């Protein structure tokens, strides 16, 4: 079912869920840093729902609003040659449409480049 | 069409300054914004200071209940102190003996301006933005902050709608200090996480003088 403009999309993930960032390279105003795409982390918190900045940047309303999460990544997972602390992490704000459940990705899709 | 140029200094100070002046003049000529509106907004921006953030930290250090509210609802707790922050979505992250937090916006230069004022140039610099996620301890060491090996680093990439404030640890040797004295040792850099406060005794402020930078 397609959400109407005024609906807010329901959050799909909860705190502690393992999620993988889409490995995709769409053009436009993308707020998902390249360095975390394709990587797996855990949901640290749900920040609320906000208009999609990828739409706002082109003068559109950005609706329906997208749930926004903070996702925690181990620095060693982001960069296998990370040379500082083993317990160091990076936390990144990522919109729901960029996230997939980690389990589905781990069943064979990892490192598959799904160019959008 | 002859566009008025703001002044010769702006005209001669580089491409982006000229671009900014041209856009400003166009917006005014087209009646989209007024000169007074721009001047008023600039004045508001320049009046904000990191001392607002320092006041929040000082309160959290002396009032455990306030600290708890600040960590649970950053914007709500800041507004409790009468600090006007508009629609800011604020997350406060707390340093502990085992954890150090540092803030960056790798994509651009998102910064809690309503609370800390204008960002320093280094925060907007591509070197800080690219390196602090990849080698935070090396970058912090260049700021003069050496972290112990048993302290984990948590880098917060401010990529979307939230803004961040670091709640540093209250330094040793500040027992019995007043909130006003504590405010004086909280630097802008400590609020971003590239420094930590140290107990440097300052001359106690006169009770009659309000803390500067707190008024909107």
Structure overview:
The complex is a heterodimer of chains A (116) and B (216). Chain A is mainly β and 116 residues long. Chain A has a single domain, classed as Roll (SH3 type barrels). Chain A is built from 3 helices and 5 strands; from the N terminus they run E-E-H-E-H-E-E-H. The longest helix of chain A has 5 residues, at 102-106. In chain A, 29% of the residues are buried. Chain B is mainly α. Chain B has a two-stranded parallel sheet with strand order 1-4. In chain B, helix 4 (51-62) packs across helix 5, helix 5 (64-72) packs across helix 6 and helix 9 (126-134) packs across helix 10 (136-142). Chain B is globular, with a radius of gyration of 20 Å. Residues 1-7 of chain B have low confidence and may be disordered. Classes of the chains: A mainly beta (116), B mainly alpha (216). Chains A and B meet through strand 2 and strand 4 of A and helix 10 and strand 3 of B.
Strand order of the largest sheet of chain B: 1-4
What does the radius of gyration of chain A come to? 15 Å
Structure summary, number of beta strands of chain A: 5
Tell me what portion of residues of chain A adopts beta-strand conformation. 25-35%
CATH class of the largest domain in chain B: Alpha Beta
Q: Write out the strand line-up for the largest beta sheet of chain A, numbering strands in chain order.
A: 4-3-2-1-5
Low-pLDDT segments of chain B = 1-7
Compact description:
Chain A has helices spanning 53-56, 75-78, 102-106, and strands at 18-21, 40-50, 66-74, 89-95, 99-101. Chain A is mainly beta and 116 residues long. In chain B, the strands form 2 sheets. Chain B has a two-stranded parallel sheet.
